[in-house]
Known about the structure:
Blueprint: E1 5-9, E2 30-31, E3 34-35, H1 36-46, E4 51-56, H2 60-67, E5 76-81, H3 88-100, E6 105-109, E7 112-114, E8 129-134, E9 146-148, E10 151-153, E11 168-175, H4 191-199, E12 203-207, E13 212-214, H5 218-231
Parallel strand pairs: 1-4, 1-6, 4-5, 8-12
Antiparallel strand pairs: 2-3, 6-11, 7-13, 8-11, 9-10
Amino acid sequence: xxxxxxLILAAGRGERMRPLTxxxxxPLLPAGGQPLIDYHIQALARAGIRELVVNLSWQxxxxxxxxxxxxxxxxxxxxxxxxxxxxxxxxxxxxALGLLGPDAFWVVNGDIACDFRFTVRRLPAxxxxxLVLVPNPxxxxxxxxxxxxxxxxxxxxxxxxxxxxxxxxxxxxLLDPALFxxxxxxxxPLAPLLRTAAADGQVSGExxxxxWTDVGTPERLAALDAELKALL
Length: 232
């Protein structure tokens, strides 16, 4: 069986984190004594997932220089260069498909912090994606997706009356490359592809009840830093 691969999304500009991201890519911002991206690398390596792809755009050379060849993490890196303008989540994943191979791969946002435990796994036949959801945080009370059993159910927009409660997408997913079949390269979001596949019953999901933070503002980063230091 081919080794499993994972993609860490690290190309965004981090506009809401300015001025902290004026000269530093968001995944390199420190929390608990090390950059955010290190936690993802370590979690993936612990699960035996050691072939990692990192997409690059804003301050990408700083990320490439910091990560090096991966030997200090006991992993290997391949870098997906997007140019000066990030391609959004969907476009960035599509651009990296050639580095990720033919099998399902994990995707994790570089600007979250989470104690989710990755595993080496495959998607069952007929499933194009598996999403990790979390309880809705204060900044996203309407949620993103609705879970019915183990399936992401098609439904109305988050917060619409008459629907079961939506939960928040954690920024962690297991994707089959076939999710992108027929889609042209370029800049586009991932969510519409997931909703289309969910309408066909092709997306599963689970809820992670552990620690999770979307590091979207300097205030959330400071709170995360204090939380992680308290655990040391």
